[in-house]
């Protein structure tokens, strides 16, 4: 007997990718439910490329009892209202919103980094999925931390508009077209024009002048990887549809050469090293779309600090940054705790 899995927020960017990942990875499910807001009730969504269509069920009337796992990709509001209900009904929630991430009773999991932390999920029957920009970063940092102990990270992100949902993608598309034909480009989703521009602002501003996206990268890295790591981030929205990029500056406790780091990263789980030190010998966001790997390029020593390295890290934010990581958590949960098979 396999699992009964509900995908909540099935019509959104991440929900659709969750369905695609479940199908592609042949997750051992007997039944998959697409669940969405009342306005999407009855709408059909594809179950990946299987040719199978799923009719969306209304979250307001969905009974989670008897369902094993719910992958939530509906944002913090619906997570607040429905995740505890689902968890209480015996359905383990894997939530992609930021709502539960810093709750000490909710494990925040990246399977390549802290799989053992999942064992704490029973306190609330909820597991949190990290922010997309954190997920790819910690996959890259983990093997290097194991080898030479990271003290401090300075990261600048170049985040695609799909991180802001379908509305963000539509805004980039419409503005690009409008500017191209000489029309004025309206900014609705973003605070400034995103087409042919970059915006140093993601999520809300905090009192210290940083943004919540930058804060999330710091606190989530500490929770997932090591609370002793100091991290500071500048998060920037760029006119790319899918794929987040990061320039990462790392200071280590111990000596580590670029060559050693490349060798470690080449063998590390979830990482694809593409680092040829020649024209085009690196990965850009358009090349990582639809892929589950975290791509690392441009590994080099930083001569301005002791034991410093710099690298370039790119991943599909809808996949490893969200849907794929959630499905990997479901697989881990199955292996370690639920142990059902199809
Ligand atoms: C973005 N990283 O690119 C955000 C999207 O906390 O889950 C995901 C926000 C989150 O806008």
UniProtKB/TrEMBL annotation:
The keyword Amino-acid biosynthesis is assigned to this record: yes
Source organism per UniProt: Parasphingopyxis marina
Keyword NADP: yes
Protein name: Aspartate-semialdehyde dehydrogenase
Residues forming the catalytic site: 132 (acyl-thioester intermediate), 244 (proton acceptor)
Protein residues bound to phosphate: 101
A Pfam family it matches: Semialdhyde_dhC
Gene Ontology MF term list: aspartate-semialdehyde dehydrogenase activity; NAD binding; NADP binding; protein dimerization activity
């Amino acid at each position: 007997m396999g699992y009964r899995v509900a995908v909540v927020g099935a019509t959104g960017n991440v929900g659709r990718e969750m369905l695609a990942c479940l199908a592609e990875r042949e997750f051992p499910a007997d039944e998959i439910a697409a669940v969405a807001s009342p306005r999407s009730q009855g709408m059909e969504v594809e179950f990946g490329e299987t040719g199978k269509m799923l009719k969306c069920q209304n979250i307001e009337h969905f009974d989670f009892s008897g369902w094993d796992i719910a992958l939530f990709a509906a944002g913090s509001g619906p997570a607040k209202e429905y995740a505890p209900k689902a968890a209480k009904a015996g359905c383990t929630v894997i939530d992609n919103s930021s709502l539960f991430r810093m709750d000490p009773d909710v494990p925040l999991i990246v399977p390549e980094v802290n799989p053992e932390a999942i064992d704490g999920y029973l306190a609330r029957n909820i597991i949190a999925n990290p922010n997309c920009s954190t997920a790819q970063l910690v996959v890259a940092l983990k093997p290097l931390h194991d080898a030479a102990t990271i003290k401090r990270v300075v990261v600048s992100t170049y985040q695609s508009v799909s991180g802001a949902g379908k509305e963000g993608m539509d805004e980039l598309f419409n503005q690009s077209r409008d500017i191209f034909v000489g029309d004025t480009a309206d900014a609705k989703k973003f605070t400034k024009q995103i087409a042919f521009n970059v915006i140093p602002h993601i999520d809300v501003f905090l009192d210290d002048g940083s943004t919540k996206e930058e804060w999330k990268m710091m606190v989530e890295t500490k929770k997932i990887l090591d609370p002793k790591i100091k991290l500071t981030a500048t998060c920037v929205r760029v006119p790319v549809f899918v794929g987040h990029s990061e320039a990462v500056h790392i200071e280590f406790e111990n000596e580590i050469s670029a060559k050693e780091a490349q060798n470690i990263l080449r063998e590390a789980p979830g990482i694809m090293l593409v680092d040829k030190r020649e024209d085009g010998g690196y990965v850009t966001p358009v090349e990582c779309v639809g892929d589950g790997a975290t791509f690392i390029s441009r590994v080099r020593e930083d001569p301005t600090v002791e034991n410093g390295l710099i690298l370039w890290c790119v991943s599909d934010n809808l996949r490893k940054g969200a849907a794929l990581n959630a499905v990997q958590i479901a697989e881990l949960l199955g292996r370690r705790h639920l142990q059902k098979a199809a």
